[in-house]
TrEMBL record:
Its EC number is 2.7.13.3. This is histidine kinase. PANTHER family: NITRATE/NITRITE SENSOR PROTEIN NARX-RELATED, NITRATE_NITRITE SENSOR PROTEIN NARQ. GO terms for cellular component: membrane. InterPro entries: HATPase_C_sf, Sensor_HK_TwoCompSys, Sig_transdc_His_kin_sub3_dim/P. Pfam families: HisKA_3 (PF07730). One of its GO terms (molecular function) is ATP binding. Residues 396-410 have a biased composition (Gly residues).
Length: 451
């Protein structure tokens, strides 16, 4: 049996490791000192016992060396040490050996049945030897001793030599196991906090990625549509500047209005990005578990702030009621656009209406880019529990290409917006050589997304 609790405690405290079975060098020094004291004691007691039984004194003195030296292995084999102390009890040897052995046995990770059996055996041996010694001394002194006196004296001796070290060892062992249990719980809590912090960081990174994607979509929608119309009007302005100054003036005014609108939307978006939420600073802590908890809390706060920013941006975004103005801007740019609304008009949640508006906006922007001069048709259908959108354009009439760049992210952004709300998005060429964009967004998309 080994005192694993002491070894674990020493390792946790970072104390220098000792040789062989000792957890610390200090423990080794203590055991060596105790063993030397026990050897000296057992040597004199062995010499006295040898004289009493008529044996050579040197033999008794030599026998005391291994008996007292047994304390060197008390941490590794506490049961063996107690057995040695019980075995030499008739020779009245090993007082220190018995006391320290019982303490070590009770404090070690030894089954309680073995502790009880050895403690009873040690007490019984001490009781018998004390009674015999008392009777012998009383007889040698010529004093009369009753059985009650002998039993009382021997019982006090047995209890005095057995109970205190046994109880102290039980207390120390229980306290050590409690400390180990608390340390294991603290380590487990630290690991859980570390995992929580990692997961929170992952969630925060995911939220940041989603926020970047959302901002990219918003920037694309704002810049691409406005700038596309500005380029179309600028080309028309260049074509009619000399022929029709009045029309050129109107086109220049439209270009200026669209530029101001684009700058206003960009300024609002950048203002949201610059806003610094309260409590953005991560708290610092000296202790590791508190630091991990602070990291987890800060990461969770960042996730909530990203979600709040997303909801705020959606609430301030465009609405379906503004589609008529959007179509009017394309018409002013020279595009023939047919706009129709089916079903009873009603109000949807902010994200649904913003997404529907952006789908139509991006679809018209693509017509300006890829099908100059083509006619387009915009249809909005209010159905039960959903809103359906369709933007279809015919083939290009061979008009002048405005030379607008395309990053290829328009259709991807529309699909991401619609599918994020649980809707369906379909796009592709038509049989007549045009292109069609269709989307169906459920009315309960906001609640589903929040869940």
């Amino acid at each position: 049996m080994t005192t694993t609790g002491a070894i674990t405690e020493a390792g946790a405290r970072g104390a220098p490791a000792g040789p062989w079975w000792w957890a610390r060098r200090r423990s080794m020094v203590l055991d060596v000192v105790l063993a030397l004291m026990s050897v000296i004691e057992c040597t004199f007691e062995g010499l006295s016992f040898a004289h009493e039984v008529g044996a050579p004194g040197a033999l008794g003195a030599l026998a005391g060396i291994p008996v007292g030296g047994a304390l060197l292995v008390r941490r590794k084999w506490p049961v063996a040490v107690v057995l040695v102390s019980i075995a030499v009890t008739p020779a009245e040897m090993g007082f220190l050996l018995g006391v320290v052995g019982l303490y070590t046995l009770a404090a070690a990770d030894v089954p309680r049945r073995i502790v009880v059996v050895l403690a009873v055996a040690s007490m019984a041996g001490t009781l018998l030897v004390s009674a015999a010694r008392f009777h012998r001394d009383a007889t040698a002194s010529g004093l009369e001793s009753s059985v009650v006196t002998a039993v009382l004296f021997s019982s006090v001796m047995a209890l005095g030599l057995t109970a205190p070290p046994l109880l102290l060892g039980l207390y120390v062992g229980a306290r050590r196991r409690l400390v180990e249990s608390l340390r294991e719980r603290a380590d487990g809590l630290e690991r859980e906090l570390s995992l929580l912090a990692e997961r929170a960081e992952e969630r925060a990174e995911w939220a940041r990625s989603e926020e970047r994607t959302r901002i990219a979509r918003e920037m694309h929608d704002v810049v691409a549509h406005r700038v596309s119309l500005m380029v179309v009007h600028a080309a028309a302005l260049q074509a009619v500047a000399l022929k029709d100054p009045e029309k050129a003036s109107r086109n220049a005014e439209l270009v200026g209005d669209m530029g101001r609108q684009a700058l206003t939307e960009l300024r609002e978006m950048l203002g949201v990005l610059r806003a610094k939420p309260d409590g953005a600073a991560e708290p610092a802590a000296a202790q590791e578990p508190e630091r991990l908890a602070a990291v987890a809390a800060a990461a969770s706060a960042r996730v909530r702030r990203s979600a709040d920013a997303l909801a705020t941006s959606a609430a301030d975004g465009p609405r379906l009621a503004q589609l008529a103005d959007l179509v009017g801007q394309s018409r002013q740019a020279g595009m023939a656009v047919e706009f129709s609304v089916e079903g009873d008009q009603r109000t949807y949640t902010a994200r649904v209406e913003s997404t529907a508006y952006r789908v139509v906006q991006e679809a018209l922007t693509n017509v300006h880019k890829h099908a100059p001069g083509a006619a387009a048709r915009v249809r909005v259908a209010h159905r039960e529990g959903e809103v359906a959108l369709q933007v279809e354009n015919g083939p290009s009439d061979g008009g002048t290409d405005a030379g607008l760049p395309s990053g290829g992210n328009g259709l991807v952004g529309m699909r991401e917006r619609v599918t994020a709300l649980g809707g369906v998005f379909v796009s592709g060429p038509t049989d007549r050589g045009g292109f069609r964009v269709s989307a169906v967004i459920p009315e309960a998309a906001e609640a589903a997304d929040a869940a």
